[in-house]
Amino acid sequence: MAFWSKKHASRPEHRFDLSAATYASLENVSLKLGDRTVLDDVSVELQERRVGLIGLNGSGKSSLVRLLNGLRFPDSGTVRIFGAATTEVAPDLPRHVGFVFQNPDHQAIFPTVEEEIAFGLTQIGFDKKDARKGARAFLKLHDCDRLAELPFASLSEGQKQLICILAILVMEPQILVLDEPLTSLDGLASRLILKKLKSVEQRLVMISHDLSTLADFDRVLWLEDGKIRMDSVPGDVLPAYAADLDRRAAKAETGAHAL
Amino acid sequence: MIAAQIPGPSWLHSLPTRFKLLVLLVSGAVLFPVDDILILATCVGLVIGLYASLGSKGLVQLRLLRPFGFMMVFILGLHAISGTVETGVSVVLRLTAMVLMANLVSVTTRMDDMLDAVYPIFLPLKWIGGSPRKPALAVTLVIRFAPVLLNVYGCLQDAFRARTGRHSSWRLIAPLALQALKMSENVAEALTARGGSKGLSNND
Predict the structure, then answer these.
(1) Average confidence (pLDDT) over A169-193
(2) Are A100 and A181 in contact (CB under 8 A)?
(3) I need a surface site. Which of A67, A178, B80, B114 has the fewest CB within 10 A?
(4) Last residue of a domain, one of B56, B90, B109
(5) Are residues B150 and B173 in the same domain?
(6) What pLDDT was estimated at residue A1?
(7) What is the CATH classification number for the domain harbouring A230?
């Protein structure tokens, strides 16, 4: 596999070790957006198959997951994917770390479903004809072949998110990072997409505001003000977080300073 | 972000992309010096006929272009104020013919076909060490997202009307520009998340 440059191949910094137990790690990572600190000296190692991220808006969740895919880079500290520093392997990160956005309309670049799927294949080196064929086969495999010719805009919200997820899965990443993938969905679509996500072999790192969706994950990180406030199994973290929300809501007024 | 598209197949979908773009280019060049209102109006009529040839789904697409209509009324208004109504009419007719035609090409062409069609133009970039894939993708995105921007403008108009009862205002131009910027940010992030314009295997 010659997806990293040969001259770098000898240095571990530049190499993905796909057999490593720790697939992602942050070492003393800080990140600023403008003059606001969104991540403040965060260190964490991820080994679990399914990791959930919770926290209020602005707590740093979205920034953290964007670090994993190379959409952002830390101002200080190191982010590693399979042992390789993201700053060193940036162009190859999307091959190993797939990223699903909250709003499917922000993710789909192409007008029709088949093109959207085929794009992922051309990205990893398929020629156009094979990419189209591959996209068809992949859609069929996931029981979505009847959507192939349809304009993305004409799909239901659930179908849109499913296609966005398939468009990432077709690139066969090892890690699937999801930034609130269920937020725009109705109750049924949300359950079905979650079921689909749990059926894939990829490691999942998922942000969610719906705590019940993370109940059977292996580990949950609770972020607050750019730091990890709690890091444990869902059975511990989720009730603590919910209790904290209730306490805050009971105390605060409903004015601008609270929201 | 999603671009508008007329679901195929149709005779326009099956025309070769390069042919469609060539027709667009030639008719643009030919129409440019024409001032005759009758000729221009005939052209607009012909283009609308092309939409109609796709049946109801073509005509629905025309309705999506209403925001563009308001823009044309605005231009005409400016000309009326400055006393050049006749020039205004021919400008508006020429613009309408061209935009309708460009839009028609855009909504009946698969984006990857479009990419293939414009790709050779940028091949010379290879000689100076550049990547022809980047500008080809950029051009495609521009062609692709023109109808989307019209749609965004329509939404802004609705929001404006819901609170003012008035149709449209020059004040929508600033939010439209902001939304366009935000949209380009989203598209850029979505593209980066999947390996960017270069692709992952360094294929040019």
Answers:
(1) 93
(2) yes
(3) B80
(4) B109
(5) yes
(6) 40
(7) 3.40.50.300
Q: What is the pLDDT of residues A109-141, one digit of tens each?
A: 887 899 889 988 988 889 888 999 999 999 999
Contact A111/B7, CB-based, under 8 Å? Answer: no
**10 Å Cβ neighbour count for A91?**
17
> Phi and psi (nearest 5°) for A66?
-70, -25
B42/B48 Cα distance (integer angstroms): 10
Q: Is residue A242, in this structure, part of any structural domain at all?
A: yes
B199:A153 CB<8 A: no
Kindly state whether residues B119 and B97 are assigned to the same domain.
no
> Tokens in use for B163?
């609170």
Number of domains in chain A: 1
**B171's tokens:** 């004040």
Residue A5 located in a structural domain: no
Question: Which of B116, B190, B198 is the closest to A107 by Cβ?
Answer: B190
**Cα B194 to Cα A110: distance, rounded to the nearest angstrom:** 13
The C-alpha atoms of residue A71 and residue B195 are separated, in whole angstroms, by 10
Domain assignment present for A124: no
**Which of B7, B111, B141 is nearest residue A149 as measured by Cβ atoms?**
B7
B101 and B140 assigned to the same domain: no
What is the domain range of residue A231?
A: 10-111+151-251
User: Are residues A124 and A171 in contact, defined by beta-carbon separation less than 8 angstroms?
Assistant: yes
Tens digit of pLDDT for each residue in B175-187?
A: 888 888 888 888 8
Min Cα distance B32 → chain A (Å) is: 30
